[in-house]
Specification:
The chain is α/β, with parallel strands linked by helices. It has four helices and four strands; from the N terminus they run βαβαβαβα.
């Protein structure tokens, strides 16, 4: 299963609560997600400190159950941030950055 995420505004704590309600049953059943596809032309930011904290807690709770993360973005800062995380292996999944959704889906599917 590949989870597709496309943030449409600032990331709020409630976004991650809803996401957990959808993702947790899948992980419980299959023990993992094959991949996460994130479409984010720019980083939308967080809706306050609570949004940032919820984001970090979501990653901490779920990263070991995700095989790959594909980020589709043109945002230089987002590319640098994701690149640093991938470079230093802070998280379990393999993280790659793509210019197109088609390339990202192809990588996630293999």
């Amino acid at each position: 299963l590949i989870l597709r995420l496309e943030p449409m505004g600032k990331l709020a704590a409630s976004d991650f609560e809803k996401l957990s309600q959808e993702v947790d049953p899948v992980i419980k059943k299959d023990n993992h997600l094959n991949g996460v596809l994130i479409i984010a032309p720019t980083f939308p930011g967080w809706d306050g400190f609570d949004g940032m904290l919820a984001h970090l807690q979501f990653i901490k709770k779920h990263h070991e159950n995700v095989n790959k993360v594909a980020l589709v973005t043109t945002d230089t800062l987002l590319k640098l941030g994701a690149g640093r995380i991938a470079e230093y292996h802070f998280l379990h999944p393999i993280i790659r950055i793509f210019d197109t959704e088609k390339e990202a889906i192809s990588w996630l599917s293999n």
